[in-house]
Amino acid sequence: MKHKLLPLSETMHYILLALREPLHGYAVMQKIETMSNGSVILAAGTLYGAIENLSKHGWIEPVGEEGRRKVYMITEEGRAILKMEQNRLLHILSLYEGSASNEEI
């Protein structure tokens, strides 16, 4: 099952990983900044564009509201996508480890 959004961009990865718990957009931005040790800082426009895209593909869904803020969470399909991507990345990492043990890349 090859999807046009695969492989996931770094942004999409972080959003899906963050939304394994229900969060609103601003909380997603904060969580991603923390998860990435400050190396990924999403602009609101980038985040909301990605959320719209992920919703459209059924990988996340709104699960409620906090005041005016929509709260989203990953769907089963989204989890399946993350699992596929995890396997793909683990395979790539295994190729690094397959080279001579202390050899430079």
From TrEMBL:
Signal peptide annotation: none
Stored Pfam families: PadR
Segments passing through the bilayer: none
Alphabetized Gene3D superfamilies for the sequence: Winged helix-like DNA-binding domain superfamily/Winged helix DNA-binding domain
InterPro entries noted in UniProt: Metal_resp_DNA-bind_regulator, Tscrpt_reg_PadR_N, WH-like_DNA-bd_sf, WH_DNA-bd_sf
Record-annotated Transcription regulator PadR N-terminal domain positions: 19-83
PANTHER family, per database record: PADR-FAMILY TRANSCRIPTIONAL REGULATOR
Protein name as annotated: PadR family transcriptional regulator
Lineage summary: Bacteria, Bacillati, Bacillota, Bacilli, Bacillales
